[in-house]
Amino acid sequence: MQMPQPDQSVINRRETLAAGLTRIVGAQWVIVDEAERRPYQCDGITAYMAMPLLVVLPGSTDELRQVLRFCHDNAVKVVPRGSGTSLSGGALPLEDGVLLVTSRLCEILSIDRENRVARVQPGVPNIKISEAVHHLGLCYMPDPSSQLISTIGGNVAENSGGVHCLKYGVTANHILGIEAVLITGEVIRLGGAFLGGAEGELDLMGVLTGSEGLLAVVTEIAVRLEPLPEVARVISMSFPSVEKACECVGAIIGAGIIPAGLEFMDRKVLDAVAALIRESFDSRTEALLLCELDGTAVEVDALVQVVNDVARSQGAIETKVSTTQEERERIWSSRKLAFSAIGKLCPDYYCTDGTIPRNKLPEVLNKMAQLSEQYGLDYANCFHAGDGNLHPIIMYDAAKPGDLEKAEAFGADVLIACVDAGGVLSGEHGVGVEKRDLMTHQFSEIDLQQQQMVKCAFDPGELLNPGKVFPTTCRCAEFGRMHVHKGNLRFADIPRF
Amino acid sequence: MTQTQADTTIQRPATVQDVADIIMDAAQAGCRLAITGNGTRPGLGNPVTAAGTLSLGGLDKIDFYDPDDLVIRAGAGITLDELEAILLAKGQYLPFEPPRYAALYGTDPRRCTLGGAVATALSGPRRILSGAVRDFVLGVEGVNGQGDVFKAGGRTMKNVTGYDLAKLVTGSHGTLAALTSVTIKVLPAPRAEISLVLPAAGLAEDTALFSAIRALPLGVGGLARRMNDGGTCEVVIRVEGTQPGVAGNRQVLEGLLQKRGGAHVLVQEESQAQWADIRELACLHPRADELVWRVNLPATAVTEFVARAREAGCINRFFIDWAGGVVFSTMRGVQPEVDVLRYRKMAESIGAKATMLRAPCAVLTRFGAFPPTSSGVAALAARTRAAFDPAGILNPGRMSLQPQEQGHA
Known about the structure:
The structure holds two protein chains of two kinds. Chain A contains 16 helices and 18 strands. In chain A, helix 10 packs across helix 12 (325-345). By secondary structure, chain A is of the alpha+beta class. Among the domains of chain A are: 8-101, Uridine Diphospho-n-acetylenolpyruvylglucosamine Reductase, domain 2 (2-Layer Sandwich); 108-227, Uridine Diphospho-n-acetylenolpyruvylglucosamine Reductase, domain 3; 229-345, Alpha-Beta Plaits (2-Layer Sandwich). Chain B is an alpha+beta fold. Chain B folds into three domains: 1-189 and 372-409, Uridine Diphospho-n-acetylenolpyruvylglucosamine Reductase, domain 3; 192-279, 2-Layer Sandwich (Alpha-Beta Plaits); 282-367, Alpha-Beta Plaits, CATH 3.30.70. In chain B, 31% of the residues lie in helices and 24% in strands. Chain B has 13 helices and 18 strands. A five-stranded antiparallel sheet of chain B has the order 4-5-9-7-8, sandwiched between helices. A four-stranded antiparallel sheet of chain B has the order 12-13-11-14, sandwiched between helices. In chain B, strands 16-17-15-18 form a four-stranded antiparallel sheet, with helices on one face. In chain B, a hairpin with a 4-residue loop joins strand 4 (62-66) and strand 5 (71-75). The two termini of chain B are 25 Å apart. The interface between A and B is large, with 105 and 90 residues. Chain A: This is FAD-binding protein. Chain A: InterPro entries: FAD-bd_oxidored_4_C (IPR004113), FAD-bd_PCMH (IPR016166), FAD-bd_PCMH-like_sf (IPR036318), FAD-bd_PCMH_sub1 (IPR016167), FAD-bd_PCMH_sub2 (IPR016169), FAD-linked_Oxase-like_C (IPR016164), FAD-linked_OxidoTrans_Type4 (IPR051914), Oxid_FAD_bind_N (IPR006094).
């Protein structure tokens, strides 16, 4: 992975730029000292690091607006960041760019119980919204596993999913309106704090959501609140083979049931978890499915019965249904511990999130086994089966020369297999820098150009989060002037990063 | 009374390549094109002046349908009737319940297309529970204003790879691209459906009831307050789900409605017919010379808004859907210059969005069918449009009027 060459002349201006930014946010909130910048040098992917030019933490929309404008006027790149939990390097700093951190914008501005809407600032951690409305019997549905830390602004930038998005949808389905600041410092408001608040507008909010900080910085979000489900029960189903478990996923959905969550764990993950919690799983089990059903008590009881029957007919060895909240939490704990349990097995692991049509699960999982042999790296599988959202956990040792590169290549081959199976590179982590160079495998030159043209409409100077998502610069100035018909490569000469 | 382009030629290609060629030719000749499906909603949006019309109605094939994966991809020109029949055969449906609105424009509802539903982003009564069109569009293929065929999104349930251009195209009224195919997430249709119907009380009381019901996790996928022909109003509550789930939720609701004197129950087909009428705004019965409006607003604001608008003569007949979140109304067309501005102003003062679903051409051209946006958003939208259609040949002006054309600017 290669980033654009940092501009030394910008780095040389560090002190002057810091002085300008200090005038906007105050000295306390501009981090110049190298030791203090160090904690910001990576996000959730620790394999990629870069020291930010400066770190700036504005305390209001107005300060943030001025910071962006200042950077725009001084032609300085900006990388926006929430809590830095991105798993694709979306918040990876640039050595010649300002890291704009939204963590001080962390207020819940209003909670409207009657209309079931909360207005929040971007730095609010996801979980805080649900906590703030729990006493009203409401919640904010999208629940990425990073929800204790990851911010709602970051969730909007990445269009985060979560365990429950199979039934309830992802971030984009739960936001009603946003305030965002363009790189010029211009503040725009899209949608409203009610359904249909964006009627008659182009869905600019839709394209900003999941744009990975390349189009604008979100400063306020109006989110939908939903009634808390009355009951949630989880069924744990163990299978003698990965194939059987995969087939059961299709059979559950095919039976007309949309579970609140449907998760898959393979034997390696189960063993790792078992070692951690000193509890063993049935020795015949090669794969485990966790299926959560929620709704009213009557409805859930009926659905539990159907899923149980489906699982049995699909060859499940054993099924367990939670009858109390404690049991439900215990069953889920194995899934929640999965990644840390794997972390104990190997010095490092690498996890991607290609997503495929559900009926391609057996095919792609087989391919993974084959790749594992080819690269000589072990892997485990723990993923959102209901969405076809894979999370292969590739184990490696960063201390071994060449191991990271091997893991990256393994991951890339899995993603390519996902695209070839009719799927996509990323279901929820984003492209960032991690999958950037694979974009040409999923999209044609024209598809990518159309996306980059939108970038030019928002940020023609390419100052916001450059080097992410797209394998080439946009060259906005050329677009609209040059045009070659019939699918001929337009910018064959553009250097790749 | 409504119409759009005085066109000369209608082209109805049957392949994506032909669509691309037509647009490329038009782009090179600097010709504007009206983009339509089967032209069933000619008066929705601002009038378009174009040299020719490009109909996508010929692209009407299913590309694939994978019921176990809850996904279907079809040509933009497939009719909603055909699509819904294909889904129903597998016990599935389009959760966003696309309205046709053909009656408003005197066209044939059976000819409304999938592409039209996506381009206009019209969502039906179930939006309060299931979401809008945009929430079910997984991917699109289209041809931009330069004749380039592009695809965006995909077919998987989750996808954050690159910008979500599929969302951007949804609701763009053919101003970004001519849609050629759409990939849609579908869901199992509810096994059981009933509606509880009771006489309306005051608007405030009824919206409070809606809010109380929505606060409960009962899977209520329809809360409307409709007007009967006699002028009295009724509250209609739709409950969907599994057989036992619906029965249980019905009990809870009946308990809740006891102090309102109870409700009568419509079962299955009766309930479906009722909601088809609500979806199609049937109870409005707009006269030929009346304007038809949709106002989206917070449910807590609807009572006062309707009272003020009726007092000012801006609302003739009206009904409420989306649990109070949308008002559909008719306006007498006597002095639209005064009433349109007054009604829009009332809506704007509370941050609501007032759209003219139907109005005479002259009114649409002068005031714009859609609610005005801030100058910053309008400029960004214009730049975004240019990113797809730099010469502005696709449905020019359909969504936003040129500033000098805006009567209220």
